[in-house]
Amino acid sequence: MNAAVSSHMTGLLRGALFCLATLVMACTSSLCHAGIVVIGHEILQEMDKTVVGRIYTGRTVQVAGVAVQPVNMKTGDAKRASFLRTILQQSDDDYVAYWIVRRAIGKGTPPPEVENAQAVIQFVRSTKGAVGYIDEADLVPGLSVLFILP
Fold this sequence. Notes:
Oligomer: single chain
Strand content: 15-25%
Radius of gyration: 22 Å
Low-confidence stretches: 8-33
């Protein structure tokens, strides 16, 4: 192989590696990650951020005459942290503290917590009025999308 061909192939290889590196960086950013969606039992309809926030703070217990039951991911879950930051502008610690006070003054109990998206989906499907949140990539037929986090 002569030097000109070798130099050309090296240039092509560098270009391909640059494209691959760019693609990998884009996919590790939000471009390739699904967003978080708030889902609900099939009887629930679309909601806005304020209503979702009021449900997760226990301030709204019925929507359109249907008793609502929120479900949370476990403390420490990245989806939970993102959800709380976006919907309530709270950290996980602030949210836990909020519910400690609320429970102490007799104003309810925090939503139950589950391990993963499949458990959220199962809870939402089997509980009338249930509301939960999952990655958009985990959506399956038969769920109502109530709100999409920005």
